[in-house]
Specification:
4 helices, 153 residues, alpha+beta, single chain, two-stranded antiparallel ribbon, 6 strands, two-stranded antiparallel sheet, 37% helix
Length: 153
């Protein structure tokens, strides 16, 4: 299953498409439910499949209740390379990480571009005249109180 996910991902399929394909084949997720794209992403990012092991990802904050939190610098983390026999070879895993990083970078760039395009809060703030390119403005309508009409500048 893990090899299938990595192979399909390297062929260019998204996590969403891979999860749909696994569901169509009737293959249950590790939790025994339907596959979600997040489950596929987790497998693609998990260093265990390449034979490595990152230790102390979480830290125990209360020894009586055994409450753990993600380790964000509270304790040192240790990364052990070739800790156990890998399922995926290192070249495949590294290529998948490069693709994930590239897609994340592009997704962030697209979000920033969308924010730049959005000029005003009102839907009509982005309307322009098709002939001269002047922006449209909302002006109060004199014939009907409490309404506006759009006019070119």
């Amino acid at each position: 299953m893990v090899r299938f996910i990595f192979d399909e991902f390297l062929l260019g399929k998204s996590s969403y498409k891979i999860s749909n394909e696994l569901n169509e084949k009737g293959i249950p997720s590790p939790k025994g439910t339907k596959w979600q794209s997040e489950s596929v992403d987790f497998i693609l990012r998990n260093e265990k499949y390449v034979g490595d092991c990152e230790m102390q990802k979480t830290v125990t904050v209360d020894f009586l209740s055994h409450k753990t939190i993600p380790n964000n610098g509270e304790a040192p983390k240790f990364y052990v390379t070739d800790h156990h026999v890998p399922i995926i070879n290192r070249a495949v895993w590294m290529r998948a990480q490069e693709i994930l990083a590239h897609r994340k970078k592009n997704r962030t760039k697209k979000k920033d571009e969308k924010r730049e395009k959005r000029v005003g809060k009102d839907v009509f703030d982005n309307l322009v005249c098709g002939k001269c390119g002047a922006p449209f403005t909302a002006e109060p309508c004199r014939q009907e109180p409490r309404t506006s009409r759009m006019t070119g500048a």
